[in-house]
Amino acid sequence: DNDDKYKIEANTNGNLLIASYSTGSWVNQLEIDGSNAAITSPSQPAFLVTNSSDPHTNFAIDTTITVTYGTEVFDQGGDFTSNTFTAPVTGRYQMTYHFYIQQLDADATGISANLVTSNRTYQGQMAPTMFDSDGTFTMEVSVLADMDASDTATCVFAQAGGAQQGDIVTQTYWSGFLAC
User: 140-149 burial by CB neighbour count: b if 16+ within 10 A, else e?
Assistant: First the structure.
């Protein structure tokens, strides 16, 4: 074991590194770019998930469905599994989710696209009756969510009334990162 638990040094690119010693090796915790002062942290929790195929076709009405994500574009920190993000530390997490729905029934009485966290639910709602006909619908919601360590978050969707014909398609995505 190394007695020095932290070190600050410049790398060969002229960047300033702050590292900690853990389980037998040094891990970079913070890097300050020497040419433009941009700060990055490879340990900062961040993720972007989407799909390579349509996850929900002809989704059921008058029920809530948890949106599934089959593709992790990135999962910095490994905190996203089984369509759920788990906060590794207490903080404020910037979350953005984007639902892309095709064949949405104009006769539906309501659409709800929500981010459900352990602390609260952040809702995006709309009445599809404003459309003249069935069609494509997108909803994007962005929120700074307070989460405690081990709190979870999922994206859920619901359609009230109308016909069972809508499809949540591959352009649906969800991203998040620890902001502060």
Answer: ebebebebee
pLDDT tens, residue by residue, 47-72: 999 987 877 888 888 888 899 999 99
Cα separation, 67 vs 114, in Å, equals 10
Q: Using CA atoms, how far apart are residues 74 and 78, in angstroms rounded to an integer? A: 9
Task: For residues 5 and 95, give the distance between their C-alpha atoms in angstroms, rounded to a whole number.
Answer: 33
Q: What is the CA radius of gyration of the chain?
A: 21
Q: Are 95 and 174 in contact (CB under 8 A)?
A: yes
**CA distance linking residue 151 with residue 87, whole number of Å:** 5
Q: How many CA atoms lie within 13 A of 110 on its CB side?
A: 12
- Predicted model pTM: 0.82
130 phi and psi angles, rounded to 5 deg:
-75, -15
The amino acid present at 50, given as its one-letter code, is: T
Q: Which residues contact 50 (CB under 8 A, 6 or more apart)?
A: 69, 71, 73, 170, 171, 172, 173, 174
CA distance 106 to 109: 8
